[in-house]
Records
---
Amino acid sequence: MKKRITVLWAAAVLALLLVHPAGRGAADPPLAVRGGTIITVTGGVIENGVLLIRGGRIEAVGRDVAVPPGAEVIDAAGAVVTPGLIDAFTHLGMERPEAGGGDFDESARAVLPQLSVIDAIDWENEDLPAACSEGVTSALSAPGEGALLSGRSALIRLPGAASGGGETMRFPAAVHANLGEAAKLRFGSRNRYPSTRMGAMALLRQTFLEARQYLETKAGPDRTADAAVESLGPALKGEIPLVVRANRLDDILTAVRLGDEFGLRLVVNHGAAASQAASELAERKIPVLVGPLADFRRSPESAADSLENAVRLQRAGVKIAFQGNSGRRPDALLEIARLAVAHGLSEEEAWRALTLNPAEIFSVAGRIGSLEAGKDADVVIFSADPLRETAVVRTVISRGRIVFSR
Amino acid sequence: MRKSTVGLLLAVVLGLFAVQASGETLMIRAKKIHTISGAVVENGAVLIRDGKIAAVGTEIVPPPGTPVVEAWAVTPGLVDIHSHVGVYSVPSVEENSDGNEMTNPLTPQVRALDSFNFEDPAISVARAGGVTTIVALPGSGNVIGGTGVSVKLKDDRPDRMVLQEDNCLKMAIEGNPIGVYGPRKQMPATLMAVYHLARKAFVEAREYEAAWEKFEKEKKAGKAAAAPKRELGKEALLKALRREIPVHMHCATAAEAMSCIRLAREFNLRLTLAHCYWVYLVVDELKEYKDVAFNVGPPMLFGYFDNPHVFHNAAAILAEAGLDVSLQTDALGGGQQNLLQLAVLCARRGMKEADALKAITLNGARAAGLDGRIGSLEPGKDADLVLYDGEPLALTTRITQVIIDGRVEYRNESLKPLAGLTAAPLAARPLDLPENIGAAGAFAIRAGTVFTLAGEPLRDAVILVKDGRIEKIGRDVAVPEGWPVIEAGDRVVMPGLVSPRSHAGISDNWKRQSYVNETSQPVVPELEVKNSIEPQAPLFSFLRGDGITSLLVTPGNLNVIGGQGTAIKSYGAVVDRMIIKDRAVMMFGLGAKARREGEMPTTRMGIMALLRETLVKAREYGEKRDREARSKKTEIPAADLALDALQPVLRGEMPVMIHCERRDDILAALRLADEFQLKIILDGATDAYKVVDEIRKRGIPVVLEGLFRGLGHVEDRGFNEDNAAVLIRAGVTVAFRPDEGSWRTPAAGQPGGEPLTLAAFAYRGGLTEEEALQAVTIAPARIAGIDKRVGSLEAGKDADLVILRGHPFQTGAIPEAVFIDGRLEARAQPDRL
């Protein structure tokens, strides 16, 4: 009798440990993904290898990695194993306008870089596990296009269908600006500044000018703290990028001009005409967040949108990442990558744009973005090559825990 | 000196002259090279190397292997320092409107550079018109609108197109800012407030400068000082105060111009006055201000309250007074390509050719601070040139190539030889008219060339006019005893011009109201324009002066069914005596303009459904009335005036003029005509060339308008200069509708404003002389149903005729005398500018 109780207790403790929401601890048995095609991104493609996960991290990945005894094994034969996908631009976690809210578009004022998505992300929002179940383990959750300087984004880890697991990995990840139509039409219709492209740029320059003055003279006795101006400090110091939504060629070049004037690390968001400015962008190492499909040729400024933009940019030496804006459509991220591949982008570059590139752009590549020893164990197992064939997500592992399983 | 030394010296000297091509070279040879800065070089050449002009002259020896291009004439690339290309780009939708930051009357901080769409389709069209450099400006909605950007219109990377990021400070001391801010209950609501705001801005900029100087001083002295907040707007104003950039001030009246000058004097600004519509009224005062640059346009001719029936050539008056004058198109959307035409119009109305050419090249360049690089053909300047196949200011000349920075940026690929012209020289002196010819009941005209438009042109012909009719016309016609004779010498006589569609007398009344569109509801067939035409409107004087003797006046384009038009003579005291044919057409409108908001029709399908519904109702109504009338029942359905008005249309007796531009709208018009067996006329018809066979086989005539508009509206996408030629070749009757301007800025001062210039350009575009002249005489007469009386010079027809100074396609051949019903109704005043 005592033995059975002990065993029961042991089993209960073990069970508790197994379903502990806080990631796989060092005490947990390791998880091994065996077989299939492992796309590491940084170490090539490994056929029929093993990916060994322990303590929430990747311990080893290779052809001859031994599976330790007691490890939970996932058979990935015939499957494709990739790093967790990183959606480079979304509003994930924030209530969508169609859903009765609209928490990511503060359009009352034009200059609001001090806004923080952290104050709007609802970790129980159902878009999060929905996207996660499509392989998106991390995403940039960002403010919208309603304002000229719309706020600061966060790079988040998405919670899975099994509750919990969400995490803010980096905040602020970037500060966001919108050039072109959206902000100027919204403000213009209310006769508010800025109502033109030139007004938008002048307001941006004036704001950064004040932010720089503030940075330089903060020590002075007469400086009054101004949240907007203060929040631009990290961007002026190059610690975080300025992500600018710009589509028309002149808007993209205006963004470049702004970056040059203030020494900013720039990222172009969407960039319909970006391939025409490829040399300017490549020279300055300015990446482009290509997508989302929902915006494709949405309005006059995006007339240059092309499904070949990704391959053109990549061949011209511009770093690209994909954005699916996986709110409404959780599979939107893979879809844009698929189309890019169909229109000339190599699979290798497509995977990079889905994983390592966004990680590098938002400075989280030390933790995620590839299948390498030491990085967080964010892994997706697809039933087939999702970029070339019809495939479904079989398993999603986030920080070493299975958060979705079909 | 020893022979060998001489030889050596000679070799060295020759070697220096035989320049080895170190870069790309190109030589252009031409009969006439307009250097602008110096004399015209005849039978000479321009040598280009590495994007610059290397030499201009008659003795140039090009390096071996240099390609040579021939041209009839060459000018520098044309310069427009007042444009809105790029900041209001095509298509003209809200998303592309970035020229006016009308959220604050003072926005010196904004830069047109940041709004400029380098891919504006208007750029390549402008380039083909010879315009090589523009200054794109913020608009005039603000008192201080921001800074302008100078741009070369070449097909290159944006950074290589921009010449100066901040070329000038744009301002407006005029009514426009009042129109924007007054209704919002914001300053300025008056012109004095406009002036005050401008002044205040400069005063505050000076204070900003002083605050920074104080700070710098204190910092240098080691004191703890807080820097003033940097303000981009004030820094832009300081650039103007320090005379680093000129100020480009929009003004219209003479008083506004003087206010601008006063302000510029107070703050020591470099000043260009823009538009300057009525500045010529104080030309004597302006002679004191030789340092001010005058940038006139976009209209070139102006009338005013002092005498509304007389117009003046503002640019010519200012140039005659020795002032610095340039011309502007003020283009947004389409129209930038018409800069050359503005110079042509100025030359046509009295401006010296040299002044006109300078006004579209060097003067603008100088005002914009760019004359170190562009504006004239001088060694060292940028190789921006325009090549022509004739005199640049001739109506029939075509641009063959445009070169920017030494590279061919445009080549005219469709240079077919022009058709032959009846030779007719330009008369040297003004026409002499016998006294009282205006009141003579009968008189004769003897002229060197008569275009009857009813056969071959007649040479040395005589026209007998009696009781308002042409009695006889021919070569050997004897003049009856005692009849006064107009000796027109070598001049040309042609039929009075007919405008196939006009809003004269309804477009602009004394209260500045327009009667053109009954916008209260979409379907108003019962309305007749005849009941709103004002014959005293000054516009009629100008149209007569342009040679237009009859017009088809119609409602506008904003209604699905807009009402009935009437054909009238262009002179009369009361409209009833002017009517040639009443109820001449019914007006229908299709396409985007006829769409409404909030009520049907908001869509194209709504427009067609409403039309069909109305016509079906009208047909049923008509059939019912017929039945009732036949059955002699006492009870006849109550008259519905609207449906009554449509009965002649349904019977095919009254033609329908349908305004439609896009291909699908034209096809919809044809579908409607087929369905209801309507006799129709297509008006606008931008895309007609795309469906020419469908039009031709139905025998439908076409009225073309906006021939100089180019791109701009979404419906203009298919704009094609060859439209007229394609249609006429296929046998379609085509008439040209001239733009009409306003009584303050008459049509002859704008491109496309005169039927004769339209005909000349159509000829240049490939029509024969006869086809082009028909399109402004007999063809519109046929379309309006008045060809039995007007449109050609034949015995029995009305004596509506025009005496021209020369061949109608010559720039200088303005109408010198215009007769309507045998009365002299217009006379050119050639010595008045």
---
Amino acid sequence: MSDDRELVSNLFKECSVDTQRVAVEIIRLERQKLHMRNPIGIVEDIVGVIKAIIK
Amino acid sequence: MIFNKIKIENFRPFRGESEIVFPVDKKRNVTIVYGMNGAGKTTLLNAFLWALYGGFTKDTERPDLVINSEVWAKAKVGDKVTASIELQFSNDKNLYILRRSVTGHKTKIGRDQQLDKSQLVLMVRGEDGNSRKVDAPSEAIDQILPEKLSNFFFFNGERELEQLVSQTTAAGAEIEAGIKTILGLEVIERATERHLVEVIARFNKDLRQLGDPKLDQLSDDRDHQEEQIKKLEVGRNQLKSNNEAVSKEIEAIDTKLLGLQSVATLQKQRDALEADLIRANADRETANKSLDQVINRYGYSAFLFPRSKFLENLTSNLRAEERLPAPLKRSFIDDLLARGTCICGASITKDKDARRHLEEIRASAGLAEVEEAWLRLASNAAGLETEVADMRGLLKEARHAANNAVLRQGGKQAELSEISSKLQDNDVEDVVKLEDQRVRYRRKEAENERELGSFELRLRQAELRIREIDREISRHEGHGGKVKVAQRRIEAATESRELLLKILKVRAESVRKELDCRIKETYRSIAVKDYVPELTPTFNLDIFQGSGEDDRETAIKSTAENITLSLSFVGALASFASSQSGSEGDGLFNASGGVFPLIIDSAFGSLDEGYQKAVARALPGLVPQVILLVSKSQGKSVVEETLKSKVFERYVITLHTAKDGEEPQFIELNGSNYPYVVPDTSTYAEVVKVGEK
């Protein structure tokens, strides 16, 4: 598992800071609504965070 | 999740109220419920599933008849009748009381039940002792024991346990989905497969609204490709579901053939051969991928090689003729000439021969940059020869592996064809019919596979084109800052999607490896034979015999080995889930680990004594709570004896039957007789607790 975490960490490091931030925000939003079968409004939420990060 | 109690009311064969209490004791964590076939053991398993998720096991007949049929029959037209399950369980220091009920309104006389939507209420009592109603009960339950994982902890008989180890794509996909659920990787799947696709489309729309003609054209092209993808996905999914149906038909035929004593051995051989064939196919694919990688990495050198030899010869010849710049710097010679003295101390003043000679060398000595370029070129040219030799070696290796896989594929296919011919030439008419049908299904399956391949290819092409368009969009020099911002947003969304897809792959593979180790460990402690289990890269469970790479073969598995393998997997999954419990993962993903119980209906039916003992010995250690639903013949004897010190409570499902001529039957437990079958005026089931001796 530790190797796997290192690999994931390396994958992150290879990306731009914007991409890293966007990816983390997406996971956070998805986690919030994980147990909804059809998470309403998640696309709008993701669009919102990307717009906030990249102005 | 640990079950404390289940209360059943008017649910299918259970009339009135029945209650089973599951004591919580780490050392004695097994509860056995005895019942004859058809008495209600599977209904009891379904009671758990229905209460938690509102559904039944796949093969349940008439799932629409939830209310006890006698209670329904006795109700008058216009009456309301209710069936319910109350489940008490503890999870992570909280106590939950769940109640699912369904009400039927009898509008006409008849067996069919007119039911409302079932109602679910979930109450939770925390450590502080306060109880509260859970607002979203289904979601809360899915957090505690996700429905996708329930398949691994609630088993309806040996058949379901065996299905888990079948070499089908569906079985592999089920296991992979279960692993992803435990790891909390569903968030990534949902993001990459659905939400980010929509987000990128939304940003493209924004970009188009900025009115740049080139971007308009690219966006039109993108929309067109998206439409194509949607159409292709519909077609592909249709083909997949057709093939799933065909696979099920083949599976059903295989089960029938296995049940026919005269051809059971042939069928078992076929099962093993098909597993080998899947492995050979995978090996061929891996070898082909290696070939691709070698060609990608070194392929260019094959074209440069003759040139490199020519270059090397040319360099040496020119050097020998002193026509090539010597590895001396012109600036160094200039310094010597200016000083008038050589480094050996000899005078190199004007008119000296040595000076003239040095001036000649200076003429052929290159500039520093030219010299360096020549040196680099010559040394690279020499390296190319080694690279070509490496490439040849790697190519040979990959080709050898691919050829081996092709040979194995051919061999297995020939053997499979021979078995099929034997079955088609069989004396028993039923066997011939079944095999003919099977051959037709296989043909259909192959046609579907070919078509599926074409769909996949077109899908990949469309997806590649979209990526290309996205790159063109982001590179396009638009006017104004707004275009730039929109481009950067698309880029960030696209890159995040690619990043998340890579992470998904890495995490799933890593857990597969870890589970594989745990499965091997558990299997070793249960299995009678010296086989080695494996959770394959396609997430299928398989067993091999022989240890080396060359003599390793898929083992011919009996039902007993399949069950052992399934239980090893369940044990490994449970211990892995337990290790994830309370962990925050790496801070990104919400691992849904936890403590899960295991409920198995009729697990010992066709196991011989050795395996019954081995499985019974292993079960209490696999999970913190085991609920076994067994018939008298399965539960008594070896199983009972082996589990003696681990069983806390026993219950009997008594079958009351209105069938004419049925004799009463009893089951002797703890020195007393308990009613097993009771002739009665109506047919129903009730639960009786076995008392202490």
